[in-house]
Amino acid sequence: MTVIEIIYEKQKDFGYIKKINVERKFIGEECFSYDLYITLCNYPYWDDEEQFTIKFSSIKDLKINDIDNLLKVCLNVRMIKDRQIENINFSVSDIENSLISFLCKDIQLL
Predict the structure, then answer these.
(1) What is the C-alpha separation between 59 and 68, in angstroms, rounded?
(2) C-alpha–C-alpha distance, residues 73 and 8, integer Å
(3) Is pTM, for the whole model, over 0.70?
């Protein structure tokens, strides 16, 4: 299975945002890029329950709308490598409630 297929499959069980973390990477005195970590969980969530974390590397154009609610997230991940945007391979957006959208270079499942 591809990373995209795994994300689609896991969202069935882990569809709610538990944590969003943005980390800036530095190389020397320069800001190199941002990585975004999204942890999804089931609802209701108890302390010892399983979670699903995704790392999106080198993100661009991050938009976060009103996440002060309990709406199920449905991340749509599209490969856009053929558009030849420098250091961008994926487009990610929540297609259900427009909670989050961004572009990124790489995706890792943690």
Answers:
(1) 22
(2) 11
(3) yes
Residues 6+ apart with CB under 8 A from 14: 40, 41, 42, 50, 51, 52
| HEC assignment per residue over the chain | CCHHHHHHHHCCCCCEEEEEEEEEEEECCEEEEEEEEEEEECCCCCCCCCCEEEEEECCEEEEECCCCCCCCCCEEEEECHHHCCCCCCEEEEECCCCCEEEEECEEEEC
Residues in CB range of 88: below 8 A, 6 or more apart: 58, 60, 80, 81, 103, 104, 105
The separation between CA 70 and the C-alpha centre of its own chain, rounded to angstroms, equals 17
> In angstroms, rounded to a whole number, what is the distance separating the alpha carbons of residues 101 and 103?
7
The C-alpha angle 31, 36, 37, rounded to 5 degrees, equals: 140
Express each pLDDT in 60-86 by its tens digit. 999 999 878 888 899 999 999 888 888
The predicted-structure confidence for 92-103, as pLDDT tens digits, reads as follows 999 988 999 999
